[in-house]
Amino acid sequence: MAFFGSVIKGVIDLKGKITSEPDAIKAQHEVLKHLLETAKDTAFGKYYCFEAILDSENIEKAFAEKVPYFDYNRINAEWWCRYHEGATDITWPGKPSYYALSSGTTGKESKRIPVTDEMVESIRNAGITQVSALANYDLPSDFFEKEIMMLGSSTDLQENNGHLEGEISGISASNIPDWFKGYYKPGEDIAKIDDWDERVQKIAENAKNWDIGALSGIPSWMELMMKKVIEYHNVDNIHDVWPNLQVYTSGGVAFEPYEKSFNALLAHPITVIDTYLASEGFIACQQRPETNAMKLITDNGIYFEFVPFQPEYIQEDGSVSDDAPVIPLSEVEAEKDYILLISTVSGVWRYLIGDTIKFTDVERAEIRITGRTKFFLNVVGSQLSVNKMNDGMQELEQKYDMEIPEFTVSATKIDGEFHHHWYIGTSKEGLNEEELANALDEYLQSANKNYGVARSKSLKGVKVTLVKPEVFHNWSESNKKKGGQVKMERVMKEEKFKDWEAFVEKETATV
Fold first, then answer.
1. What is the pLDDT of residue 30?
2. Domains of the chain, start order
């Protein structure tokens, strides 16, 4: 048993014993108070009367009444654009040191999310919280001697008008503490390589020089990296190269759709820990092995609010109507879907992050991501959320012994009638598309009451088209969104779906 690993494990165990869990409600009150006090003299704080909010008897209620909801387009057009004109003290004191380029899943251009020094510190603190939670897992001491492969975006940040720009994983990795650099792989030189394929090639070439104990990154791109390493070294699975691999920290998307294809690359199961790091901040991380839910980090510079996820509150572009009710953490209920709003130390205010969540344990403030507001398929009243789509894919995986790491769907008209057209990524041969469509349709009708009603009325059928998983990756690359934080869009609007179908036709024609 490695001595140094025992020391680290002992420190983590001790920290877990002497550090008490914060009262989430009180912590959120203090976070909101800090945000308002810090930003009260900014242009935003003056416009929305933060001083008056702080003097009110109930600052949570006053804050919700005075400050409207913001999505990216609105806050960028009304406030953040002033930073790019050279102004300071707009939504947060000073000017942001970084901008996170959100590769996203919707929209034609990357969003540019302000990232302040306070947010960098917040993300670092959340990482420490996550590491401390390893005390709850039955990991041997020598695990803490192993290296960690963090597969994110390039750390070669670009200077632009006095600040640095890059994806949030690249910003985070470029700010790792010195003591951690000895554990961090692929290391600074390889991490700076901007081209995804070149970076993964270098990882494959160096893989056997590293003793990797943990992986961290988005599942789809982690799979591609592992496949490249396996192929390069001509082995059966990733454990033939990294025999001490024991932990995978997932994030960005639900892991369940990738579970089967991911596990196929392993010699034996490993511990999977979910995290929730968005371009706007480190929101939650899994802290207990007996659940796959994540605990909201309530004392670390992010204030949370929740809008009930109901069709009447969601506009066509995925934003929230101004009259939608908001619920503070103190009033949420378990197993109900909510649209997540955040206010942060980066000068993000009542911001629609785009995700929907549900609480699995209200007392522990534990959540699961259930989908995206823009990926809510409700063209003909089907009210189909991403979590139901994921469930449908898992049903097909089990029933037909197949792996479905990627999929997308759109409501399209076929012979003048609405259908849900699914494109499913799988490498398995000999499957019948019509049979899969019927099985998926039957499952969704049984699992989703509103979908069943829609199928009896305006939604006339389901169509399935099978393609290789590589087609999805090539689509991302064609849109200059390959690797790092990139997530495939699960629901496409009609115009984009036409582009997708044309792309698929071209891809399959060249095979």
1. 97
2. 119-152+177-285 (3.40.50), 377-509 (3.30.300)
